[in-house]
């Protein structure tokens, strides 16, 4: 396991979810560059530091013993990683306050250190929320690997914070220094909204929701083929995003008991607001979680899932495979997992290793809808 060795600490760090023989590490050269710069500048023990999108907690775990750190991001798995990495490196697991991206971190902050996220809308919303939260003389520094640093990230820093200067590249990483200047209070373009024809509902989407401007094509392929089983079924929407699958199913099945889970706090926030708009006070459970890890075994009759194929910048089916395993554990015998996926991902073969029966429900040239029975 690679050790993060910086002027602040030597750390053994985990990613989340943990995988056997993990090929990836929980930090990169951009984290190292940012910490080296901070040490060079000198960091007062009473400095208030806000970390945005600190992946698996490498920055927070490094700095926790040296200043007053607050971490904020949109990943529940990132929050779990932060707690585990603090505890695993001899610190209190709750030693760094964590603010979900669905809430606003309260300043004033002397330093704001930003890992540039994959979704620039999330960065934009975070920069908008910095307005009025910076202490006099505050320093704002963004970091990224160059291959993941679009020019638009610098444009957003300039628009919402102030003039930007880029560092030289070090180990294929770069820092962007934004000098705060007085600006009028910005208005946020988020959340965005779009309407569906069937079912006829409007969906609201906070900044980091996948396919924020319209229904993603996988969900569009899935909606006409949602299971028709009626009655008091216990149903989960796993990786719920803005909640559209669960809401469509619930509208057609008035007695069903729904649980919506996602690891994105902004997805959960969007799903909660969309459920309220479409279904009012109908009882529901909506939570940020590590998939169905918090779900009791044999407690669900049906799981609906449009699985992700990436975590941050990393593409692969490891998250989907884990979700399938979690669904199997949570389902009763005879319970069903319904998924939509790209044809080329070969989910039929993967599901056949976990479930006793797998059927194709529908297909188009790009997507397939599958039903797996426990």
TrEMBL record:
Residues 201-371 form the Methyltransferase small domain. The keyword Cell membrane does not apply. InterPro entries: DNA_methylase_N6_adenine_CS, RLMG, RlmG_N, RsmC/RlmG, SAM-dependent_MTases_sf, Small_mtfrase_dom. Keywords: Cytoplasm, Methyltransferase, rRNA processing, S-adenosyl-L-methionine, Transferase. It catalyses: guanosine(1835) in 23S rRNA + S-adenosyl-L-methionine = N(2)-methylguanosine(1835) in 23S rRNA + S-adenosyl-L-homocysteine + H(+). It holds the Pfam family MTS. The keyword Thylakoid does not apply. Its main location: cytoplasm. It is found in: Cytoplasm. One of its GO terms (cellular component) is cytoplasm. Residues 1-181 form the RlmG N-terminal domain. Transmembrane segments: none annotated. Its EC number is 2.1.1.174. GO terms for molecular function: 23S rRNA (guanine(1835)-N(2))-methyltransferase activity; nucleic acid binding. Belongs to the methyltransferase superfamily. RlmG family. Specifically methylates the guanine in position 1835 (m2G1835) of 23S rRNA. This is Ribosomal RNA large subunit methyltransferase G. It comes from Aquipseudomonas ullengensis.
């Amino acid at each position: 396991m690679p050790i993060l060795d910086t002027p602040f600490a030597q750390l053994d760090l985990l990613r989340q979810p943990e995988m056997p023989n993990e090929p990836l590490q929980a930090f990169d050269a951009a984290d190292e560059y940012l910490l080296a710069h901070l040490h060079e500048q000198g960091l007062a023990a009473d400095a208030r530091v806000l970390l945005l999108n600190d992946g698996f907690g490498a920055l927070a775990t490094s700095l926790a013993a040296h200043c007053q750190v607050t971490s904020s991001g949109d990943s529940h798995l990132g929050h779990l990683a932060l707690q585990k990495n603090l505890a695993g490196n001899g610190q209190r697991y709750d030693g760094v306050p964590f603010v979900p991206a669905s809430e606003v971190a309260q300043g004033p902050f002397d330093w704001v250190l930003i890992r540039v996220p994959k979704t620039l809308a999330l960065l934009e919303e975070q920069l908008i929320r910095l307005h009025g939260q910076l202490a006099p003389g505050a320093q704002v520094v963004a970091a990224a690997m160059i291959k993941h640093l679009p020019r638009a990230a610098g444009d957003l820093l300039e628009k919402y914070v102030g003039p930007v200067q880029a560092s030289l590249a070090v180990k294929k990483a770069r820092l962007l220094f934004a000098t705060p200047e007085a600006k009028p209070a910005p208005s946020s373009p988020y959340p965005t909204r779009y309407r569906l024809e069937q079912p006829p509902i409007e969906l609201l989407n906070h900044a980091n929701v996948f396919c924020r401007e319209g229904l993603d094509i996988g969900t569009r392929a899935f909606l006409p083929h949602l299971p028709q089983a009626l009655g008091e079924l216990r149903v989960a929407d796993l990786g719920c995003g803005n909640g559209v699958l669960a809401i469509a199913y619930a509208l057609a099945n008035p007695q069903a008991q729904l649980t919506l889970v996602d690891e994105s706090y902004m997805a959960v926030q969007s799903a909660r607001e969309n459920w309220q708009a479409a279904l009012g006070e109908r009882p529901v459970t909506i939570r940020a979680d590590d998939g169905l890890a918090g779900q009791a075994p044999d407690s669900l009759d049906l799981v609906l899932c449009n699985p992700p194929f990436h975590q941050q910048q990393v593409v692969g089916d490891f998250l989907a495979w884990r979700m399938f395993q979690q669904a199997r554990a949570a389902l009763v015998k005879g319970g069903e997992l319904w998924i939509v996926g790209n044809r080329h991902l070969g989910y039929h073969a993967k599901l056949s290793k976990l479930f006793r029966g797998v059927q194709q429900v529908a297909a188009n040239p790009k997507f397939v809808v599958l039903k797996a029975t426990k």
